[in-house]
User: What shape does this take?
Amino acid sequence: MFKYLEIECIFVNILIIKEKKPLNLLFKQIRLVNPNDELDVISDLWIKDGIIKQIKPNLQNYDTETQIIDSANFVCCPGLFDMHVHFRTPGQNHKETIESGSNSAANGGFTGVVCMPNTSPAIDNEITLEWLINNSKDNIIDIKYSAAITQNRKGEKLTNMNSLNDKGVVIFTDDGDPVKSADMMKKAFDYASTNDLLLSQHCEETSLTSGFGMDECELSFKLGLKGYPSVAEEIIINRDILLSEYCGNRRYHVQHLSTWKSVNLVRQAKKKGIRVTCEVSPHHLSLDHNNLSTFDTNFKMNPPLRSQNDIDLIIEGLKDGTIDCIATDHAPHTEEEKNNVFDLAPNGIVGLETSLGVCLTNLFHTGQLGLNEIVLKMSINPRLILNIEVPKIEEGVMANLTIFDPNELWKVDKTKFISKSRNTPYNEIELKGKPKYTFNNNKYYISNL
Assistant: This one.
């Protein structure tokens, strides 16, 4: 039985180690990076039975059955964490499931994610939440859940956020739709004040965007596609920052911002001491609206791809700390759905398996961010925003780690994705920087990208 399982794992080029097969690996001369603890050293790293057993330069005393891995080209950091994914369970398991999404995350180097509540039914009550939590156990990745701000995400009546928070919800959002009413958002901020809950927003003034196909720009007029004006995003961000301040400086997180003015709004709010944080998605810092010229629906998303000027100033926001973290907005859709007429095709792309490569290629290898800064944006800050403990790289603790080669060149092949969906704009694109191993919960995963 043991040999059969081993052969099966090698065949698919994925190896998940569980209790029946001891985890015993020694990484020689690996770079250990954890900016949360001001750690950046070259050392040997021995992981046994899910525990970091020893960290020592030129380690010599180890078990004879230990597998030794030459790691001079590798970097090890606290496991990557994505605070914005869609696993489509319940309701759309044909696009993604908890299992396929989790394996997709591990394949991309992530050890933790937060699932969004725009499922069917929505995550807006304790029964749905408890079912999801029970079905997310014993996983290589840690799955956290968001819940809706309003019941069924309709914007009409608040959910019981305090109760949902007690059951483990880490952030509240009607993601997929904004909370349209300023009065309802004010009530949500007032409600959140009791337990200092974190509210988050899909920032879109929908009266300006209905039926959009892409960013409103010269190209959208040329292509005959309804445009999504940048101001539609900025109106909601500005409104919510003002409401947060008015209601007593409540915690507020901006999801997947995409315009340079959005960055400035967050920057000015932070300077005033308002407790606002924000995220950007890898596609909004690496692709622009010119990619829509071929009507390829894999470039259709919400918010839409913007201009190169927006990209440049978003990267400035990453560099100066205005933008706290990078989150994929992993949004699986079937090939049939994405191959529909452009106007009818759904928005969104998968991102968990390309995120690290895209960020290393477009931020690290362009000299915009150092490795410590990328680890901060992709591992440390998301957990700090959500009040989740940051993993340690030290002896005696459970290994929650991502190991990657920052310089390995590879071409994206969507057929190697573990996600059930393949809707990516990066297929056949060459990236520099690749996940190699993912460790968590006494399991490890070897990336097969």
